[in-house]
Every structure is written in structure tokens, then in C-alpha cells.
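User: Hey, quick favor. My workstation is busy. Could you predict this chain's structure for me?
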Amino acid sequence: MENNILNYNWYAIRVKSRSEKKVQSDLIEQSIETYLPLQKKLRQWSDRKKWVEMPLISGYVFVYISRKEYEVVLKTYNVVSYVFFEGKAAIIREADINLLKRMLGQVEVELEITVEHFKPGQMVEIIAGPLCGVIGELIDFKGKNKVALRIPPLGYTVLVEAPGKNLIPHIS
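Assistant: No problem, here it is.
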């Protein structure tokens, strides 16, 4: 049992609306490792335009914790709950977190998050560009080819623009 308590995993937590950055800051103060995927967006007000960092997935923050820190996270102000899958807090694969970090680290890659559930399509691999080697499901969305990379426990899909010439069918 002791060994299980010290296993660290990534979890997604739901937070109150527009409190993602504050929750992340509070958790960091408690020495809890977090990841909040942010993307710069141009916002327009009546008198000006400004680039602001917005959460890529509104209402969620990722935490890297052991079972011992589980309650500490839940008791943090503005944390609503963990994301559950099949009755347990959903563990997010490290590979999915690293993929998000990798995609957000590329300036020329445009990301879009959608909660739509797409029908399974052809699996493809990106063979050129900053995301070379990434495998995902091809979606024809708004007239552009995009690779959809699913994060199953969250029910979200990350759509990445990829020209058709950079895709090949993936054979598993």
C-alpha cells in the first residue's frame, strides 16, 4: 500500500470559471506540480486590441500528484472536483501531457479545442513539420485537414492544422 501512495500520476481537475491561473498559483504555493496549457489569443475591446494568455482547455488544470496529495488538491480554493472515468479519478497519460506541451511550444502550430465527439476516421501520421511523428485521427473540419488527437478521459479532442501533403495513412 505504501508503494501505491507514492506513485505520481497526472490528473485533471475541474476548477471554477475563469480561475485556472489562480488555482495553478495556489497549488504551486503548496508545492504541487501543475500544468495549465495556455495559448496567446488576440482579444478586442472597444478601444484596443491586446494579446492575452488564455487557458487552452477552459475550466481544467492538470496536477502531478501522489494519492497522499489527493485531498490537498481538492481542498484548494476554486477546485471543484477531479475528472472521473469509470468511477475513479482519471489518470492522464504522461505522453498526453508531453504532447500538449510539445504542441504549445511550437509557434507556427494553431490549436483548437472542441468538445464535439467525432466519428472515428482514418488514423494518420504527420511526416513533416514541427509535429512530425505524431499519430492521430484525420478529421475534415471546416474545409481543412486536421489531425485530431484525443485525450480520452477528458472527452476533449485537440485539433491541429496539418496540410494533406504532410500526412500518410498510419498502419498499426
